[in-house]
Amino acid sequence: MTQWTGLAGLLLATLAQASPELGKLHYITEENSPYNYRDGSGMATGFAVELLQRVWQQTATPPQPIDVMPWARGYSQLSKRSDVVLFSAVRTRARDPLFKWACPIDHANIVLIGLTHRHINLDRLEDAKHYIIAAGRADVGEQLLIRNGFQADRMMTSNRFNHAIKMLTSGRADLLSTNKNTFYQRIGELGLAPDQFRVQWTLSADPFCYAFSLAVSDQLVAEFQQGLEQVLASPTYPALRRRYLPE
Question: Which superkingdom (predicted)?
């Protein structure tokens, strides 16, 4: 009887952690390796995706579909709908009051990168306003430029990260505003040598997070945050991180 009582208690505890409401949200991401991207079969994968799947397990949430779409479209849905979780989103000061947040997935260094042979030197951020800068459309790299007073006619944006990199390598743009880790991961996939590029300026160092529509309840976001913290503290987390984000 004692054994069955213990099993029943464990079952009740598991059910108490179940979160049917987390299963009613719409999960959206973009192509942003190594954090989130499509695998060979078209399914979402990556560090942030596997982290999310472990949060679902921790909160007894059934696996949910993950839509992969251009960042600008996903960001628009996050802003307009009441049930969206968008990742991996950089939590900047300007974005902070616009959404609710569960953090961190990782920390993002948003930088201005140039071609080494161009010998561009920036003594202050204002110096960068003399150059044409590429960025992802609606991406944090573009938003930080706008916030720092860069004019639209000095920026070139694209929905596709590879296209933004091409703007830089072809000389159409002088600098690229982007996440440092993502950039170096992508140029490796494209067969480009890291020493072709140089970080010219760091625009921000903020956490990568899961961003929730403002209408999502504080209680639900807190439940997700608790699940995320439990995953980050788990003994299997370091191996997951090393697999996608080797030092």
Answer: Bacteria
The tokens for 231 are 């995953």
Residue 8 has pLDDT above 50, yes or no: no
pTM here is 0.80
Angstrom distance (rounded) from CA 18 to CA 31: 30
The letter for the amino acid at 65 is: P
Q: Quick check: 37 pLDDT over 50?
A: yes
Backbone phi and psi for residue 198, each to the nearest 5 degrees, phi listed first: -145, 135
Domains 20-107+207-244 and 108-206 belong to one CATH topology:
yes
CATH of the structural domain 108-206, one choice from 3.40.50.720, 3.40.190.10, 1.10.720.60, 3.90.1520.10: 3.40.190.10
190-240 residue pLDDT tens: 999 999 999 999 999 999 999 999 999 999 999 999 999 999 999 999 999
Map out the domains of the chain as residue ranges: 20-107+207-244, 108-206
Dist CA 31 CA 34 (whole Å) = 9
Q: Is domain 20-107+207-244 given the CATH code 3.40.190.10 in the classification?
A: yes
Report the C-alpha gap between 151 and 136 in whole angstroms. 15
Residue 91 has pLDDT above 80, yes or no: yes
